[in-house]
Write a structure and sequence with these properties.
6 helices; single chain; mainly alpha; 139 residues
Length: 139
């Protein structure tokens, strides 16, 4: 289900994970990961209600998409956990040490991930892992 192409269903996973977290209900490991990211973003807590499931978040309207932002956090965490691409864990550890804050390091890294994904989509090719790692090392 996490890899669904249905925006509404994917967002519902976030909303449901947050609901369970707030009510103290048992959660799956994935729900726990999602809730841990949401917990770090109080500015998005209001968006974790069902009535925001179909909200359009358009940059041209000055809106940040909380689901995209948190999804990038989860992607960065997965990359670090698996060290894929190889070297990303070391880049994260070094950045975290330099900044003194893992969440801040993730934010900087997710900006690079978003840029890398945008470049790949624009050019119609897979993301360039070597370029991605080089961008991360320059942070």
């Amino acid at each position: 289900m996490f890899f669904s192409q249905d925006r509404s269903k994917l967002r519902q996973m976030y909303i449901e994970a947050w609901r369970k977290f707030e009510s103290g209900e048992p959660m799956s490991p994935l729900e726990d990961q999602i809730a841990s990211v949401i917990a770090l973003h109080p500015e998005y807590h209001d968006a974790m209600r069902d009535d925001f499931r179909n909200e359009d978040y358009k940059p041209e309207d000055g809106k940040t998409n909380p689901f995209l932002h948190m999804g990038l956090h989860l992607a960065i965490r997965e990359q670090i956990g698996t060290d894929r691409p190889a070297g990303i864990r070391a880049a994260f550890n070094g950045l975290t040490k330099r900044l003194g804050d893992a969440h801040d390091a993730e934010h900087r890294m997710l900006d690079v991930l978003a840029e890398t994904l945008w470049d790949a989509q624009r050019n119609g090719r897979p993301p360039d892992e070597a370029q991605y790692l080089e961008r991360l090392r320059r942070l």
